[in-house]
Design a protein that fits this description.
The protein has 183 residues and is of the alpha+beta class. It has five helices and eight strands. α3 crosses α4 and α4 packs across α5. The protein is globular. The two termini are 17 Å apart.
Amino acid sequence: MCGIAAYLGQKQAYPILINLLKRLEYRGYDSAGLALLHNNKIKIYKETGAIEQIEASLQGKDTSGLIGLGHTRWATHGPATQINAHPHHSQDQHLTLVHNGTVTNYYKLKVLLKDNHYSFYSDTDSEVLVNYIDFIQKTEEPNLLKTLTKVALNIEGRSAFVIHDQNFPEQLIAFNAGGELYI
């Protein structure tokens, strides 16, 4: 079972996200990751194993940011690797997403995206999802909230996610399409 943590506020996001992820440890996971927004740029950090692994890898690094996403993953699509860990980003990196659930029709969406010149770096349905959102946003509906409504009508399975759009750096959107998301 995955765990999602997100923060937007006046405090540094990193310690808050790490604390939230540690509170989700009982759910079981095989990798963890963070995305932190600093100076209008998202930095993504991912590691396999325990949350302590990501903490150790970030020792001495700049973890500044007042907005962030965190995730613990239990592998369902693709093995437990650093590249398959969340957060995931769209091909052009303007969307960043953490996802809990399963997009059961991801393979059909992936074919559509490949036919439209998208490429993929991971084996996850979550990367397909963030790129599908990107595709709909660019081809049909630039407003992200309206895009998500369209996406919800076309994905199968149960999903909950939090997404960040570089075009609107001061907001996070939480979305539940039959998954588990508690705000």
